[in-house]
Amino acid sequence: MDGPVLVLSLFDGIGALLIALLALGASFAAMCWETDPDAAYVAVQLRRGHFTVILVAGGSPCQDVSPLHSGRPGLASARSQLFRAVPDIADQCRQVVKELHLSIPVFAMLENVAGCPPEFLQAASAALNGPPVQVSAASFGWTRRKRLFWCSNGHRSAQDVSQPKLPPNVTSQACAGGWRLGWQGKWPWPPSISFADDFKPRFDPVANAKASDDGPCFPVFSRAFQPPPDHGPRQDPVVMRRFREHGQWFPLFNYEEHALLWKKDQWRVPNSSERAQIMGIPPAALKWAPRTPRSETQAEQVRCSLIGNSFHVPSCMLALIMLFQLCPQASAIPPAAYVGLEKHIRQNAQVYWVDTQMRGRQLAYKVQAICKAMHPDVAAVAKAKAITLDEVRDGLAAGPFTKPQLDSLFGPGNWIPMRRFMLLQAIYTISPDFVAAACKFCIGLLQDLEDDLPMWAEPHVGTEDMKAAYRQLPNDPDEQTGLFIAFYDPNDHQVKYVHLRAHPFGLSAAVLNFNRVPCLSTAVVRRLAAVATCNYFDDFGVLDFVCARGSGVSFLREAHNLMGLVLDAVKQGPMATQRHFLGILLDLTAALDKQILRINLKVGLREALRADIQVMLDQDQCTAAEAAKLRGRLTWAACGMFGRCGRAGQAALVQRQYRDSDAKLSDELRASLRFFQSLVQVVEPRTVFLGPRALPPLIVYTDASWELQEKVLQCLQDRKTQIMPLEALAILQCFVVFGSRFTGRDILLFVDNQAVCAGVAKGACSSADCARIISACHLLWAKMGCRVWIEWIPSDDNPSDGLSRAGLQDPWTVSQNWWMADFPCVPWAQLQLLDLLLVPDVSEGEKGSETV
């Protein structure tokens, strides 16, 4: 597709179809219909020209055709006939398009259960030009949900796609009844779920994803309802007892052992947040449901029901991929502006290995030899062995060898092994500034030419990742005696070795040498193709206009191909308005019309952080290693989302990481964990403005005097003068009292205390009382979405200096003829308990000047 899609979503639920389209990187506008008031309210809260495709889609009610309904009336019921709305509306759209003399294709997609009766299957297939695509959600590893998707363009169905182009790890089988699609890969999708309170399922989703057949997993998610359903193992008294203990929310099969979450002997059903993650729906999508909860139990039942009625997003994505292959085919790369460009590159490309100009650097230091066998119970020895043998099979290493064999080849003491160990980690770094800066510059250039930004200038982001990056670069033959990997073989109970032919992990020289290659490829693509791209180690990001049709990414791939390097097709992120890049979700959907970029944490990370912190609070302990890992994750998340407010609470984690010997939670650490647990849940995505701001910055001056009630001073630390915390408190009071006036604005804040300026700029302070006040300021600013620049000003030049001494009777202030009024500060006792995430409204009497 070359442009945005107009989506007509029937039986819309909570908008899972739109989530699937976003995940595929499609640009679209949607019109949605839903009768359930709670589902409709959620969908409205989630949604904030010219179209090249019209998509009419929906999952019609399945209650009367589902195998869960023993007395199903089938196609005879009026509710079952609602499926005809999808092809009928699609036909009406085609007629309108024809009358307008447009050449816009109209697609229709209908979803329903795989166990529907034959008469429904035949009627739907006749109305939508062919048999459906069948997708089994169980193949993704987590839950059963076998669904049928009828895909049609009015003339053909997905059955007519003879050789579908599908993502890696997607299996396909052509049958008389339509295509059957599934997932078979190394990891399930999603790769992990954040289960609360350390509960886990008693099945292996990884094994399910690797298997060719559907394995044991969660049963199909359904609505939460009473009385008890008519399906399930009634003969099992244990299942029946669990069913009754839980209040008969779900069908009986939801209380079998594999359908539950377990922590030792404790059990529970998955909650709505966990169900949403399993279905591929962001849990935050449910935070508006229900509209008017009567109790938390009722609210949870509504949320579970909404998930039960929704699409399984990965299955829906596969169906959409099949559907859009009915589009007329067009070249992915526009005609070359310079016909000799690619030919010139190929003629001058090196025919020998590119690394001949880069290698030769000696090892920065010697790796100490492992002279003793590893203990048999080293963690993850089986996985380390499997990975090592995979590298031998792929030709990246030679072996395995025993120590006597290597001694005979190189001589005793003439070779050095490195220990193979498993390190579970992620790279916590971000680079959203690349996209923001490039978008801002391009939009500025276009706005200089015309006021309205053209549709072809919609910015898209794509990502690429090198496959087994280090292992693609060969080693210097002169250094082979230091490039052996030692691993423990649990079957033979001895240490074995392999000779590594490619770059090893953990050596500083390998890091330096490797980085030269992606830096070179980035420079080549920038200079030869004028593509806005950047790299962080082996990760690449590309920014381009929609009119480029992915040519920038194609040039990046070609450059790596010419260098003899392989990019990972599984990790590829095609050009789209939303993409994950280095753990950050970059959202450019509003870049064209509103000139804003939203930066958010990747889907599921908020829930994962909150769940990990809850485990520490429940267990009342946090080790130094756990504190270090959590601190790294939180620091990275704060840089991408929360800004300086993420500095609060770090002191307790640093104390535990470097100084404490006891793992038990202290009061300070417990408070810090609770702060971060709330922070990751409530602070909104960061907004970067790509165009000029409509309103000028607000100018704020604050000052404080040391004339307070004793109960306020008693809350501060003992010091000779309390002016510093009071100056900081004046800033906080200003933004609390006039909160709604500052929301979403740029603010120039002038303060005549240098220590306070420095503390606010850093977001931290060594004094605990000042640190709490400063952290509260940043937390409030993050919630209000305002950008604050703080600047020191001499007291003599501070307009608020006289007001802090003489109030509204200050002679100089009176002489300015400003509108002035007294506004009471929030009492100290209330301020200490104030929910700073709720920005209060300005009082009704406020008006006039914006400088108070």
TrEMBL record:
Signal peptide start and end residues: none
A biological-process GO annotation: methylation
UniProt entry keywords in alphabetical sequence: Methyltransferase, Transferase
Superkingdom classification of source: Eukaryota
Entry keyword Repeat: no
GO MF annotation list: methyltransferase activity
InterPro entries (alphabetical): DNA/RNA_pol_sf (IPR043502), Hepadnavirus_pol/RT (IPR052055), SAM-dependent_MTases_sf (IPR029063)
Protein name as annotated: DNA (Cytosine-5)-methyltransferase 3A
